[in-house]
Amino acid sequence: MSTVDQTRELAAFLRTRRERLRPGDVELPARRAHRRTPGLRREEVAELAGVSVDYVIRLEQGRGLRPSPEVLEALAAALRLSEDERLYLFDLARQRPTSRPEREGPADDEAGPLARLVLDLSPLPAMVLNHRFDIIAWNPEMAGLMLDFGTLPPRQRNSLWLCMLHPGLKNFFRDRERTIREGIADLRASWAAHPDDKGLSDLVEELTSGNEEFARLWAMRDVRVNARGRKRLRHAAEGPLTVEYEVLAPLQAPGQRLVIYRAADPESQRALDAIARSCAP
Q1: CB contact at 8 A, 121 and 111
Q2: Which residue intervals define the domain HTH cro/C1-type in the entry (predicted)?
């Protein structure tokens, strides 16, 4: 049984995407009449998508409709959704096309061969996450950069939980708002793709009810899968540094992610080298 109320979430997502657009964003003429609500009108979305206004209203009210793939494509184009947002929309409607059957591989909570690969990647900090963002394997350099995950209870070995609730990481991200917002947008995509995962829904509920910052950013309904980027960090001993990260999805374990950090500049490289030396046996 699904733990995500997909009809309700689909309604809320469509409303927030409509409200963020202006007529000029979709090449509609600006109207002189004052708009009582932000963003496009439902009539404008209906016109752009080629559906009736009543249909848009019923979708936004969560009245049990299940849009076809063709309607979803039209709505995604009308609302100028990114590719990640488009897939999120299809996931909520349970209409995502299956490109190929998933290969048999390790369970989501088992890193399998990836655990050995993570160790081989030293001295680059690396870790393996599952679709809940649980940290299921890491090397000493990643632990030295962030914290010793092995000392934590298993339920706390979750990258979002640690970022939001662990006191030792409160000041770890120098661009905290942006980093947290991107992480939550990524988690939301996974949440929609795994509506039957009670553990994932429980994590979202715990963070939403226990952390105002998470609740505020979660309510924005941003959706973005982060494949690469930069993070500005603050290490307790080595001070500020910047890393470039790469996220790889193994074909044999499509529900898992291999995350690798590299120094973004010479000063950051010196900091990572010092951290690696401190982790050496």
Answers
A1: no
A2: 39-86
State the sign of the Cα–Cα–Cα–Cα dihedral 214, 96, 134, 204.
positive
State how far the alpha carbon of 103 is from the alpha carbons of 106, 116, 153, 253, 255, in Å: 10, 20, 31, 7, 11
C-alpha–C-alpha distance, residues 127 and 27, integer Å: 44
Band of the pLDDT at 2, cuts 50, 70, 90?
A: low
Dist CA 39 CA 23 (whole Å): 8
Phi/psi for 27 (5° steps) reads 60, 35
- pLDDT band at residue 97, thresholds of 50, 70 and 90? low
CATH of the domain at 66: 1.10.260.40
For residue 33, give the 3-state DSSP assignment: coil
Cα(160)–Cα(135) distance, rounded to whole angstroms? 10
For the chain, the C-alpha Rg in angstroms (whole number) is 21
CATH classification at residue 173 = 3.30.450.180
Give the integer Cα–Cα distance in Å for 133 and 103.
21
* DSSP state, residue 29: P
Indicate the SS3 state at residue 84: helix
Identify the domain boundary among 60, 92, 124: 92
Tens digit of each residue's pLDDT (9 = 90 or more) over 158-184: 999 999 999 999 899 999 999 999 999
